[in-house]
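Request: When convenient, would you put together a sequence paired with its C-alpha coordinates?
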Amino acid sequence: MIELLTIENLANLGVLLFLQAVLGFDNLLYISIESKRAPKESQKSVRRNGILIAVALRIILLFLMVSLIERLKDPFFEIHWTGFLEGSFNFSTIVFLFGGVFIIYTAVKEINHLLVVEDLQHEGENKSGKSAAQVIALIVFMNLIFSFDSILSALAITKVFVILAIAIVLSGLAMLLMADGVSEFIEKNRKYEVLGLFILLIVGVVLLGEGGHTAHLKLFGYAVEPMSKSTFYFSIAVLVAVDIIQSGYQKKLLASKKSV
Protein backbone atom coordinates (compact mmCIF):
# COMPACT_ATOMS: atom_id res chain seq x y z
CA MET A 1 0.00 0.00 0.00
CA ILE A 2 2.89 2.36 0.80
CA GLU A 3 4.23 2.05 -2.76
CA LEU A 4 0.95 3.52 -4.03
CA LEU A 5 1.56 6.78 -2.14
CA THR A 6 3.90 8.20 -4.75
CA ILE A 7 3.82 11.82 -5.88
CA GLU A 8 2.59 10.68 -9.31
CA ASN A 9 -0.29 8.64 -7.88
CA LEU A 10 -1.32 11.39 -5.46
CA ALA A 11 -1.25 13.94 -8.28
CA ASN A 12 -3.34 11.61 -10.45
CA LEU A 13 -5.80 11.16 -7.57
CA GLY A 14 -6.19 14.94 -7.29
CA VAL A 15 -6.84 15.25 -11.03
CA LEU A 16 -9.33 12.36 -10.89
CA LEU A 17 -11.25 13.91 -7.99
CA PHE A 18 -11.52 17.18 -9.91
CA LEU A 19 -12.63 15.26 -13.02
CA GLN A 20 -15.25 13.32 -11.05
CA ALA A 21 -16.55 16.56 -9.52
CA VAL A 22 -16.91 18.25 -12.92
CA LEU A 23 -18.41 15.24 -14.72
CA GLY A 24 -20.57 14.34 -11.72
CA PHE A 25 -22.57 17.60 -11.78
CA ASP A 26 -25.09 16.41 -14.37
CA ASN A 27 -25.32 13.05 -12.57
CA LEU A 28 -26.16 14.74 -9.27
CA LEU A 29 -28.72 16.93 -11.04
CA TYR A 30 -30.42 13.88 -12.53
CA ILE A 31 -30.50 12.12 -9.14
CA SER A 32 -32.04 15.18 -7.47
CA ILE A 33 -34.78 15.55 -10.11
CA GLU A 34 -35.55 11.85 -10.57
CA SER A 35 -35.77 11.15 -6.83
CA LYS A 36 -38.75 13.51 -6.66
CA ARG A 37 -40.73 10.96 -8.69
CA ALA A 38 -40.65 8.57 -5.73
CA PRO A 39 -43.14 8.77 -2.82
CA LYS A 40 -42.38 11.79 -0.62
CA GLU A 41 -41.46 9.76 2.46
CA SER A 42 -38.99 7.61 0.50
CA GLN A 43 -37.11 10.28 -1.45
CA LYS A 44 -34.16 10.66 0.93
CA SER A 45 -33.57 6.90 1.18
CA VAL A 46 -34.01 6.58 -2.60
CA ARG A 47 -31.17 9.04 -3.19
CA ARG A 48 -28.94 7.37 -0.59
CA ASN A 49 -29.55 3.79 -1.72
CA GLY A 50 -29.37 4.70 -5.39
CA ILE A 51 -25.97 6.37 -4.99
CA LEU A 52 -24.55 3.57 -2.79
CA ILE A 53 -25.60 0.82 -5.22
CA ALA A 54 -24.39 2.87 -8.18
CA VAL A 55 -20.95 3.45 -6.61
CA ALA A 56 -20.56 -0.29 -5.93
CA LEU A 57 -21.56 -1.13 -9.50
CA ARG A 58 -19.29 1.61 -10.85
CA ILE A 59 -16.28 -0.03 -9.16
CA ILE A 60 -17.30 -3.37 -10.71
CA LEU A 61 -17.65 -1.62 -14.09
CA LEU A 62 -14.21 -0.08 -13.61
CA PHE A 63 -12.68 -3.50 -12.92
CA LEU A 64 -14.34 -4.95 -16.02
CA MET A 65 -13.23 -2.06 -18.20
CA VAL A 66 -9.64 -2.27 -16.96
CA SER A 67 -9.69 -5.98 -17.83
CA LEU A 68 -11.62 -5.75 -21.11
CA ILE A 69 -10.77 -2.28 -22.42
CA GLU A 70 -9.24 -3.65 -25.64
CA ARG A 71 -12.15 -6.01 -26.32
CA LEU A 72 -14.65 -3.23 -25.74
CA LYS A 73 -13.05 -1.28 -28.58
CA ASP A 74 -13.92 -3.92 -31.17
CA PRO A 75 -17.12 -3.08 -33.10
CA PHE A 76 -20.16 -5.29 -32.54
CA PHE A 77 -21.62 -4.38 -35.92
CA GLU A 78 -21.30 -1.85 -38.73
CA ILE A 79 -23.84 -0.06 -40.92
CA HIS A 80 -22.98 1.09 -44.44
CA TRP A 81 -26.04 2.73 -45.98
CA THR A 82 -24.06 5.19 -48.07
CA GLY A 83 -25.57 8.65 -48.10
CA PHE A 84 -28.05 7.80 -45.35
CA LEU A 85 -26.49 6.09 -42.32
CA GLU A 86 -22.93 4.89 -41.76
CA GLY A 87 -21.15 3.89 -38.57
CA SER A 88 -19.23 1.30 -36.58
CA PHE A 89 -20.77 0.49 -33.20
CA ASN A 90 -18.95 -0.96 -30.20
CA PHE A 91 -20.05 -1.28 -26.58
CA SER A 92 -19.19 2.27 -25.49
CA THR A 93 -20.85 3.93 -28.50
CA ILE A 94 -24.06 1.97 -27.90
CA VAL A 95 -24.05 3.02 -24.21
CA PHE A 96 -23.51 6.69 -25.11
CA LEU A 97 -26.16 6.73 -27.85
CA PHE A 98 -28.76 4.89 -25.77
CA GLY A 99 -28.00 7.03 -22.71
CA GLY A 100 -28.30 10.24 -24.75
CA VAL A 101 -31.66 9.22 -26.20
CA PHE A 102 -32.95 8.17 -22.77
CA ILE A 103 -31.87 11.42 -21.06
CA ILE A 104 -33.42 13.56 -23.82
CA TYR A 105 -36.64 11.53 -23.56
CA THR A 106 -36.68 11.95 -19.76
CA ALA A 107 -36.03 15.71 -19.93
CA VAL A 108 -38.68 16.32 -22.62
CA LYS A 109 -41.21 14.18 -20.73
CA GLU A 110 -40.65 16.07 -17.45
CA ILE A 111 -40.75 19.47 -19.20
CA ASN A 112 -44.07 18.41 -20.69
CA HIS A 113 -45.31 17.43 -17.21
CA LEU A 114 -44.46 20.92 -15.93
CA LEU A 115 -46.73 22.41 -18.61
CA VAL A 116 -49.74 20.30 -17.60
CA VAL A 117 -52.11 22.12 -15.25
CA GLU A 118 -53.13 18.94 -13.44
CA ASP A 119 -49.51 18.27 -12.47
CA LEU A 120 -49.13 21.74 -10.99
CA GLN A 121 -52.29 21.27 -8.97
CA HIS A 122 -51.01 17.99 -7.51
CA GLU A 123 -47.31 18.78 -7.28
CA GLY A 124 -47.08 17.39 -3.76
CA GLU A 125 -48.15 13.94 -4.91
CA ASN A 126 -46.17 11.17 -6.54
CA LYS A 127 -47.01 12.35 -10.08
CA SER A 128 -45.25 9.64 -12.03
CA GLY A 129 -46.68 6.78 -9.98
CA LYS A 130 -43.21 5.24 -9.66
CA SER A 131 -42.29 3.16 -6.64
CA ALA A 132 -39.11 3.78 -4.66
CA ALA A 133 -37.56 0.63 -6.18
CA GLN A 134 -38.27 1.83 -9.72
CA VAL A 135 -36.68 5.22 -9.07
CA ILE A 136 -33.61 3.60 -7.47
CA ALA A 137 -33.25 1.34 -10.51
CA LEU A 138 -33.40 4.37 -12.82
CA ILE A 139 -30.86 6.29 -10.74
CA VAL A 140 -28.46 3.32 -10.73
CA PHE A 141 -28.95 2.78 -14.47
CA MET A 142 -28.32 6.42 -15.39
CA ASN A 143 -25.41 6.65 -12.94
CA LEU A 144 -23.71 3.82 -14.82
CA ILE A 145 -24.26 5.59 -18.14
CA PHE A 146 -22.85 8.84 -16.77
CA SER A 147 -19.96 6.93 -15.23
CA PHE A 148 -18.89 5.49 -18.59
CA ASP A 149 -17.62 8.87 -19.75
CA SER A 150 -15.84 9.56 -16.45
CA ILE A 151 -14.25 6.10 -16.31
CA LEU A 152 -12.99 6.29 -19.89
CA SER A 153 -11.54 9.74 -19.12
CA ALA A 154 -10.02 8.46 -15.86
CA LEU A 155 -8.34 5.51 -17.60
CA ALA A 156 -6.57 8.01 -19.84
CA ILE A 157 -4.96 9.50 -16.70
CA THR A 158 -3.92 6.34 -14.85
CA LYS A 159 -4.38 2.56 -14.98
CA VAL A 160 -3.79 2.04 -11.22
CA PHE A 161 -7.01 0.37 -10.07
CA VAL A 162 -6.71 1.37 -6.39
CA ILE A 163 -6.31 5.07 -7.25
CA LEU A 164 -9.28 4.91 -9.64
CA ALA A 165 -11.42 3.12 -7.02
CA ILE A 166 -10.54 5.67 -4.30
CA ALA A 167 -11.59 8.52 -6.64
CA ILE A 168 -14.91 6.78 -7.36
CA VAL A 169 -15.64 6.14 -3.66
CA LEU A 170 -14.77 9.72 -2.64
CA SER A 171 -16.90 11.17 -5.44
CA GLY A 172 -19.75 8.88 -4.33
CA LEU A 173 -19.44 10.18 -0.75
CA ALA A 174 -19.53 13.75 -2.07
CA MET A 175 -22.74 12.97 -3.97
CA LEU A 176 -24.25 11.46 -0.81
CA LEU A 177 -23.46 14.65 1.11
CA MET A 178 -24.76 17.00 -1.59
CA ALA A 179 -27.78 15.12 -2.99
CA ASP A 180 -30.22 16.12 -0.23
CA GLY A 181 -29.11 19.75 -0.33
CA VAL A 182 -29.51 20.00 -4.11
CA SER A 183 -32.94 18.33 -3.95
CA GLU A 184 -34.12 20.66 -1.18
CA PHE A 185 -32.89 23.69 -3.12
CA ILE A 186 -34.80 22.59 -6.24
CA GLU A 187 -37.89 21.88 -4.12
CA LYS A 188 -37.81 25.38 -2.57
CA ASN A 189 -36.97 27.07 -5.88
CA ARG A 190 -39.20 25.25 -8.36
CA LYS A 191 -38.27 27.56 -11.24
CA TYR A 192 -34.77 26.06 -11.24
CA GLU A 193 -36.26 22.64 -11.98
CA VAL A 194 -36.95 23.88 -15.51
CA LEU A 195 -33.35 25.08 -15.77
CA GLY A 196 -32.11 21.71 -14.54
CA LEU A 197 -34.22 19.82 -17.08
CA PHE A 198 -32.87 21.90 -19.95
CA ILE A 199 -29.33 21.25 -18.71
CA LEU A 200 -30.13 17.53 -18.76
CA LEU A 201 -31.42 17.99 -22.32
CA ILE A 202 -28.05 19.42 -23.34
CA VAL A 203 -26.30 16.54 -21.52
CA GLY A 204 -28.30 14.11 -23.68
CA VAL A 205 -27.17 15.95 -26.82
CA VAL A 206 -23.55 15.79 -25.58
CA LEU A 207 -23.81 12.01 -25.09
CA LEU A 208 -25.32 11.58 -28.56
CA GLY A 209 -22.51 13.63 -30.08
CA GLU A 210 -19.87 11.68 -28.15
CA GLY A 211 -21.34 8.32 -29.15
CA GLY A 212 -21.85 9.37 -32.76
CA HIS A 213 -18.28 10.68 -33.06
CA THR A 214 -16.81 7.53 -31.50
CA ALA A 215 -18.87 5.41 -33.91
CA HIS A 216 -17.71 7.55 -36.88
CA LEU A 217 -21.41 8.05 -37.49
CA LYS A 218 -22.56 9.78 -40.67
CA LEU A 219 -26.15 10.92 -41.19
CA PHE A 220 -27.09 11.81 -44.78
CA GLY A 221 -23.38 12.06 -45.57
CA TYR A 222 -22.56 14.44 -42.69
CA ALA A 223 -20.29 13.29 -39.87
CA VAL A 224 -21.58 13.63 -36.30
CA GLU A 225 -19.23 15.88 -34.31
CA PRO A 226 -18.97 15.89 -30.49
CA MET A 227 -19.74 18.98 -28.44
CA SER A 228 -16.59 20.17 -26.69
CA LYS A 229 -16.62 20.40 -22.91
CA SER A 230 -15.96 24.16 -23.09
CA THR A 231 -19.02 24.62 -25.35
CA PHE A 232 -21.10 22.50 -22.95
CA TYR A 233 -20.18 24.55 -19.89
CA PHE A 234 -20.57 27.81 -21.83
CA SER A 235 -24.11 26.71 -22.78
CA ILE A 236 -24.90 26.00 -19.13
CA ALA A 237 -23.47 29.39 -18.11
CA VAL A 238 -25.67 31.13 -20.71
CA LEU A 239 -28.79 29.25 -19.49
CA VAL A 240 -28.06 30.23 -15.87
CA ALA A 241 -27.36 33.87 -16.84
CA VAL A 242 -30.59 34.11 -18.87
CA ASP A 243 -32.57 32.65 -15.96
CA ILE A 244 -31.06 35.10 -13.46
CA ILE A 245 -31.57 38.12 -15.74
CA GLN A 246 -35.14 37.08 -16.59
CA SER A 247 -36.00 36.63 -12.90
CA GLY A 248 -34.63 40.07 -12.09
CA TYR A 249 -36.51 41.62 -15.02
CA GLN A 250 -39.80 40.00 -13.95
CA LYS A 251 -39.35 41.33 -10.41
CA LYS A 252 -38.84 44.85 -11.80
CA LEU A 253 -41.97 44.56 -13.94
CA LEU A 254 -44.03 43.40 -10.96
CA ALA A 255 -42.64 46.23 -8.81
CA SER A 256 -43.45 48.83 -11.50
CA LYS A 257 -47.01 47.51 -11.90
CA LYS A 258 -47.62 47.68 -8.15
CA SER A 259 -46.34 51.24 -8.00
CA VAL A 260 -48.74 52.39 -10.74
